[in-house]
């Protein structure tokens, strides 16, 4: 007995070790799978399905994530997943709710006015038809799209999606539909908006030339002002909508109808537009879903702009080690956007730190995002910013937790002369310069400068839309970073 | 409760607290950009803390109960075991750490060496804690390293 007592401390020590071992090894399989997905950067639908499989294979144990019908409780699971993500370093998020969402539907509105017909001639490159076909093909469920012909009104296309895609002369097969002598944008936009149900995405293929009836003798300024007011009046009524205007260029061979003058023959390039119309939330959803990447980044697009893009909260992470970093700092684990223990480089006195940002949701091209002049920075110590697109080859095992899922790295450089500072970064949402550059005031002759690249009155119409939404779109995003020594 | 029991319970509580607050304890002495986040995310602080505590207590248990020899009960014998465990535990932790990092494609060789340097301190402290917790019931070494 005494001998046993003599070994009791050993027994206690052994129990202690086993206790600690069990407490560390007993991690739940579900939580481990979630954590692994975050750490490996595998926050995909496939990984989500695997997590759902763990739940359904042991529904009793994971009853918190199963509803009364035996289905996955998407909200509860999303909450648990993001709680696990928030406990990681850096904190991570995973929008899993979108996986179970209802499919979106597509409606194509194909303008069939006199000046659109020459875009699809046998002699041309067929860029317009290819763009429409791409929009249908790259839209998940595009085979069920509804196709409509528009000019003075909206008319349903008689064929099927398949016949539309295969039709080599769409204007010939739709000849006689509506009145092709003018396009009534007011009727068209109003009808598209009114017909649009939640989850529907409408695309209008048009040359965006405002061509109402009886413009003979009317001054350009009067036409433009009318066009501008019309756009504002239409779009003001639909504040929840968002519009993406994609400018493309296609071969044109045929009669061109100027606003005020004799029609003339023209052969060469002309701009046309694919205008995507949907609820702002629907476009936000598509922007976050890779399946819509080709649809939103339409091949052949020269310029693009989204109207009514609300200020987006961006996901960003401090990158501890990056090329241009100087000095030292530490991201606070208690407060998002707070960087503490800032120490400048001893030799230069400069503090440079980098944050990885996901700009994907903004639907902006690299040229726009990589241009520091599109950013405004406010800070007491005059920090500057350098923007770099993340090269996939720069992602290593060590930095993948910070760079995975991110698109750009912003490096802030300055001398932190005060104990604290607050850097506010805005990505400005200005009326894009390309619209002005793509606008003509005179389309009476093909020899006019920029006839191949400009659209009559484009700026006034799009400015009217911009004005309708201006209150909600001063910045694409705002980021605030607090610094402490 | 007698003094021996208080020592034992205090030692266990100190070790449990070390493990519970392992992240704060380790990062209090060593932090490196990126490396510390990787250690935290992969849960290595817990594994390393567990190995360190188990080896320190195990070494003390071997000294006081397995060896438990009158020919090996001087303070320098005790110090010898401390030196061995202080070297061995970080080596074991390094290899465990390294294998987990390899599986996650991390490469922090230099940081791991520095971290294990810090872990040597904790190993030594835990060995001392374990020694003062369990030595009282050793038949031949209860006066090591200091007389009762």
Description of the structure:
The complex is a heterodimer of chains A (485) and B (148). Helices cover 30% and strands 25% of the residues of chain A. Chain A is α+β, with helices and mostly antiparallel strands. Chain A has three domains: 2-95, no CATH class; 105-309 and 433-473, no CATH class; 316-428, no CATH class. Chain A is globular. Chain B is mainly alpha-helical. The longest helix of chain B has 29 residues, at 75-103. In chain B, helix 1 runs antiparallel to helix 4. Chain B has six helices and no strands. Chain B has one domain (3-137). Helices cover 76% and strands 0% of the residues of chain B. The A-B interface holds A 5-10, 12-13, 16-17, 20-21, 24, 27, 35, 38-40, 88-90, 320-321, 328, 330, 396-402 and B 8, 12, 15-16, 19, 31, 33-34, 36-38, 40-43, 46-47, 49-50, 53-54, 57-58, 60-61, 64-65, 104-108, 130, 133-134, 136-139.
Mean pLDDT of chain A, to the nearest integer, reads 85
* Low-pLDDT segments, ≥5 res of chain A: 1-5
Cα radius of gyration of chain B in angstroms: 17 Å
Q: Could you say how many structural domains of chain B there are in total?
A: 1
Which two chains share the most extensive interface?
Answer: A-B, 32 and 39 residues
List descriptors.
heterodimer, A: 485 residues, alpha+beta, 3 domains, globular, B: 148 residues, mainly alpha
Give the topology:
The complex is a heterodimer of chains A (485) and B (148).
Chain A: H1 2-6, H2 8-25, H3 29-39, H4 45-57, H5 74-86, E1 105-111, H6 127-137, E2 146-150, E3 154-156, H7 161-166, H8 170-173, H9 185-195, E4 200-206, H10 220-236, E5 241-256, E6 264-279, H11 280-288, H12 293-296, E7 303-307, E8 316-319, E9 328-331, E10 338-343, E11 351-357, H13 366-369, E12 375-378, E13 384-389, H14 400-403, E14 408-414, E15 420-428, H15 433-437, E16 439-440, E17 455-456, H16 458-469, E18 475-484
Chain B: H1 3-20, H2 22-29, H3 35-41, H4 44-67, H5 75-103, H6 109-134
